[in-house]
Amino acid sequence: QAKSRGGNNTVYFSRDMNEETLRKVEMEAQLRKAIVKNELYIVYQPIIEVPNESLIGCEALLRWQHEETGLISPAEFIPLAEEIGLIQEVGKWVLIGACKQLKEWQDERLGDFYVSVNVSAIQFQHPAFLSDVKEALRVSGLPPEYLCLELTETIMLNDASYSIQVMEALSELGVRLAIDDFGTGYSSLSYLKLLPLDILKIDRSFVRNMNDHSPDVAIVQSVSMMGRGLKLKVVAEGVETPRQLELLKQLGCDYAQGFLIEKPMASCMMYDFLRKHKVLALQEH
Ligand code: C2E
Ligand code: MG
Ligand code: MG
Ligand code: MG
User: Fold this and answer.
1) Which end of the chain has fewer surrounding CB within 10 Å, N or C?
2) Residue ranges of the EAL domain (predicted)?
3) Could you read off the pLDDT of 141-168 as tens digits, one per residue?
4) What pLDDT sits at residue 9?
């Protein structure tokens, strides 16, 4: 077992430590420094309204550009950040960064859309989470309705009543709440009617396999209908083909996000994208 002694930065290895563990120990130490070394940055992926394809929001996605390894996927380092107790700090950094960025675009009149920030279950359950959200809104000056928090179904797994309490407090603040990767985790319809939700994001796995007669079409259609009944907006994730977008239109899905529309972009690229859209919108009027 490796023991990382916080005080003197000494790391002890045992002989049988495998490469995987070694890599993790190294990544751990480096992730702790990544924020101050400016190795973390946020990319933004547009979310559009399905019927008219206008921009309705964007998702903030975290990136880690490691000096030696290169780009490391959030799927790899977010769980690590959770494990080593860094997720609250990293998550707060993303919240503040995303809110400030959108406020900047708003101040330049670059559009009227929300930013969606991913929140891990452990981050959500941290006692400081609610105050972190408030602080992000305060320091950025972003109106709360322009911030959406993407939660996963796993937040209901332990201490559901605490989670509901936090969600209600967030909802009272005026931020929007989304369930991410909907349909892949612990979905309970009884929670759906209880929770102060605004958005459901249908997981990419359902969208990917949508062919005309696949069960996934029925699933996407049913979730879209349920969304309408519960007054929730439904986002399809991972839209990659024109055929998928066409099907979503027919099935009544509200919003879409995916490589077909745009890949996640660094903020300077997103800025260009917004400028281009603004010019096009002005020309149409
Ligand atoms: P997610 O929240 O479900 O984000 C959607 C993922 O799908 C993103 O991967 C995005 O780049 C990818 N994606 C979007 N459109 C398409 C498409 O058309 N096809 C395919 N194949 N993929 C598409 P990414 O950026 O690698 O993020 C992976 C996961 O890491 C996210 O899944 C989210 O759970 C987590 N994550 C990312 N940023 C953060 C963060 O700031 N905080 C937390 N807690 N988690 C984050
Ligand atoms: Mg997400
Ligand atoms: Mg998702
Ligand atoms: Mg997903």
Assistant:
1) C
2) 24-278
3) 999 999 999 999 888 888 899 999 999 9
4) 52
Please list, residue by residue across 92-129, b when 16 or more beta carbons sit within 10 angstroms of its beta carbon and e when fewer do: bbbbbbbbebbbebbeeebbebbbbbbbbbbbbbbeeb
The environment of the single-atom ion ligand 4, i.e. residues with CB closer than 5 A, is 181, 204
* Interface confidence (ipTM) of the complex: 0.98
Using the atom order of ligand 1, give the atom closest to the CA of residue 259: 18
pLDDT of 108 reads 95
Other Cβ atoms within 10 Å of 270 Cβ, number: 21
For residue 242, the CA-to-ligand 2 centroid distance in Å is 22
Give the C-alpha distances (Å, rounded to integers) separating 85 from 5, 94, 131, 156: 14, 16, 18, 20
The string of pLDDT tens digits covering residues 92-122 is 999 999 999 999 999 999 999 999 999 999 9
State the distance from the centre of ligand 4 to the C-alpha of 11, rounded, in angstroms.
Answer: 35
Ligand 1 atom 13 nearest Cα:
238
Mutate to test the pocket of ligand 1, among 41, 61, 182 (most ligand atoms within 8 A of CB): 61
Contact at 8 Å (CB) between 98 and 92?
no
Residue 6 has pLDDT above 90, yes or no: no
pLDDT for residue 231 is more than 90: yes
Q: Ligand 1: residues whose CB is within 6 Å?
A: 45, 61-62, 73-75, 78, 91, 94, 118-120, 150, 180-181, 237-240, 257-259, 264
